[in-house]
Amino acid sequence: STRSEASSSPRARWGSLTEYALKSPSLFFFGAAAQVKRSRSKGGLAGPDGTKSVFGQMCAKMSSFSPDSLLLPHRVWKVKFVGESVDDCGGGYSESIAEMCEELQNALTPLLIVTPNGRDESGANRDCFLLNPAAKSPLHMSMFRFLGVLLGIAIRTGSPLSLNLAEPVWKQLAGMNLTIADLSEVDKDFIPGLMYIRDNEAPAEEFEAMTLPFTVPNASGQDIQLSSKYSHITLENRAEYVRLAINYRLHEFDEQVSAVREGMARVVPVPLLSLFTGYELETMVCGSPDIPLHLLKSVATYKGVEPTSSLIQWFWEVMESFSNTERSLFLRFVWGRTRLPRTIADFRGRDFVVQVLDKYNPPDHFLPESYT
């Protein structure tokens, strides 16, 4: 097939590649079970390092999961939220995934940081996240490995994650090296600042009067000393400074990326990721944030009501009127997820069932129910 044909269906290629690389676990294995308390991300209840968040609690329980449990094609674990009642047909699991994605992106855990462009409210990718280069402790590395497990599970099960990671993250996870252009995508002022230093034509006295430290801000804004030999930038060492600064920023996420890939390797054959672009990998893990109703309609089945009835027509008209954010909230209610799989095949038999329950009468006195 042509490159364009292959690129249009990364998941199809992934299925072909892994058919012989992985053996499916027993269909009689039902996965691990976990009880977690939900902090609801309020009042610092997630702990200083996010250890009490749902993400942190699940990360701590990973050692009790058998390797086979991570290779299941659908629900990998069963979750009971302490103090909550859930009609669980997989919904507890789905809700745990959605909750963890929220925690990762609202500073409840230390793993992700907003891009420098987002911090400065300028340039592209303001709403995207990077791996935190300052998160280096053994606990943080364990959390990054668990993040990798989640990414691998999303690929294997076809259940997309609602994560908005910047493109450079996906490129590195796919085994690609970053370029200067990638740095500019998330930090538009970084390279121009270096070029100002490199090309500045001020006299030596005037240049050195600026007393520029021989440091570079990392992606989280912390100043990093680049050399023990120099304390300040001079005309003589500025070329070396620019070289060291660029090299640092190109590799500042290496430890974190390595830990995430290590976690992914517990679920999927990581060497095969190099066959995909960063964008293709993102598509396999996250699907699309857009929620096309034609895809939802194509997997819809109906119980106790005809698909041509006025009630169903009204339902789809209301769904059409929803914004993408509102559709995402609807999915969270009925499915425990905020994104749809990319294709019908990725639903893997998980139909969207619309059912009229006769036990509630008069119906206007009751709220909708969902069995996720």
TrEMBL record:
Residue ranges the record marks as coiled coil: none
Pfam families hit by this protein: HECT (PF00632)
Transmembrane residue ranges: none
Keywords: Transferase, Ubl conjugation pathway
Xref: SUPFAM superfamilies: Hect, E3 ligase catalytic domain
GO molecular function, one term: ubiquitin-protein transferase activity
Gene3D superfamilies xrefs: Hect, E3 ligase catalytic domain, Hect, E3 ligase catalytic domains
Protein name: HECT domain-containing protein
Ranges where the HECT domain occurs: 68-372
Superkingdom of this protein's organism: Eukaryota
